[in-house]
Amino acid sequence: xxxxxxxxxxxxxxxxxxxxxxxxxxxxxxxxxxxxxxxxxxxxxxxxxxxxxxxxxxxxxxxxxxxxxxxxxxxxxxxxxxxxxxxxxxxxxxxxxxxxxxxxxxxxxxxxxxxxxxxxxxxxxxxxxxxxxxxxxxxxxxxxxxxxxxxxxxxxxxxxxxxxxxxxxxxxxxxxxxxxxxxxxxxxxxxxxxxxxxxxxxxxxxxxxxxxxxxxxxxxxxxxxxxxxxxxxxxxxxxxxxxxxxxxxxxxxxxxxxxxxxxxxxxxxxxxxxxxxxxxxxxxxxxxxxxxxxxxxxxxxxxxxxxxxxxxxxxxxxxxxxxxxxxxxxxxxxxxxxxxxxxxxxxxxxxxxxxxxxxxxxxxxxxxxxxxxxxxxxxxxxxxxxxxxxxxxxxxxxxxxxxxxxxxxxxxxxxxxxxxxxxxxxxxxxxxxxxxxxxxxxxxxxxxxxxxxxx
Length: 455
Known about the structure:
This protein is α+β, with helices and mostly antiparallel strands.
C-alpha cells in the first residue's frame, strides 16, 4: 500500500493521475447526459405546448403561418415554406414563407410574382414520397423543389442571393391522405437540426391540419346553409311546394352537418392520440399503458350500462390520463429501484400537471376533471385532492380500477409483472374501501366470466 501511495503522489503520472482523468471523464459524461435530458425535455414540452395551441386554432386563424413560424423555431436560420395540397388537381400551393420577410420583394421581382400563392403540379412519385411522413432531402436544389415552375437561372440566382444549402421536404399526411407539405431550406454551411423532433412536429400537425380543414368546410357548409335558408324563406309565401322543398333540403343539410361533425370528433380523437404519444415517448417502459387502460375502462363502462357518450368520454380520458408525466423527469420514470419520498411526490404531481395542461382546452366533456381525479380513492386516501365516495366522478372511479389492474398485470422497470390474479385479489380485497363497488364487480365479471384479455 505504501508503494501505491507514492505512485499516486508522483507528479509525472501513475495510478493517481489515471484515477483523476477517469473522474474527470465521468464528470463530463454525467454533465453531457444531463444536458441531453434537458434538451429532450424542452423538445417534448415544445411538442406538447404546440399541440395544445393547434387545438385552439379557429377556422379564421392562418394555420399555415402558425405552422411555419413554429417549425422555424427548430431551425432558426432556415427558410420554411408551408403548402396546401389540392387532391383534384394534384397540385401544391404555397401558403406561407417564413425566414425571408426582408427579401420577399426581391424574391417577387426575380420570379415575376409574389411567392405566396405559387402553385405546382406534382407527380405520383413525389406524392408517394410525401405520404411516407418522413423528411426527404430534395435533389436538384430550388429548381427541383419548384417542380420546374421557376427557371433554372432564376433558381441559381436566388440560391446565391439567399445562400441556400440543402432543402428538406415532408408531407402533412394521415391514413394515406395528403393535406400539404412543409419544406425547410437550410443555409450554406449549416446542417438540419432536430430531424426527429421536426418529423414528430409535422406528424402531430397533420392531425391538426386535417381538423382545421374539416372545421373550415363545416363553417362553409353552415354559411351555405344559412344562405339557402334565407333564400327559401323569401319564397315560402309563393307556394306550399316551395315549403316542402325547403324542408327536404334542410334535412339533407342537417345530415351533411351531422356527418361533418362526426368527422370533426374523429379528428379530435386523433389529436388526443397525438398528445398520448408524447407521454409514451417520455416513458417507453409503459408504452401502451394508456391504450390498455382505456380498453379495460371502456369494457367496464359497457358492462355497467353507461351511455355511448359516457364511454366516448372515458375513451378519450383514458388515452391521455397520464399526460401530466411530461412534467416528470425521465430518470424518475425509468428508475429501476425504489423511489425516495421526494421522487414519489414528483410522480404524484402528474394528475395536477395533466389537469393544468387540459383545463385551458374547451373540450365538450369534463376530460380535465377525469384526468385530475383518476388517483383518488373511495375512502379519501388518494391524491391529489383527497376526494372520497360520490365526490369522485364516475368515469374517474372506473379509470382508477382499470389503471391499477393494468399496472399490476404489466412489467415495470422496478418489478416484473405481478399478473392478473394478483390484480383481481387487490381490487377484491379493497372493494368499497379504495375502489367503487360497482366498478370492481364489473371488472371481476369481465375477467372471470367474459375472459377479458388486454390487446
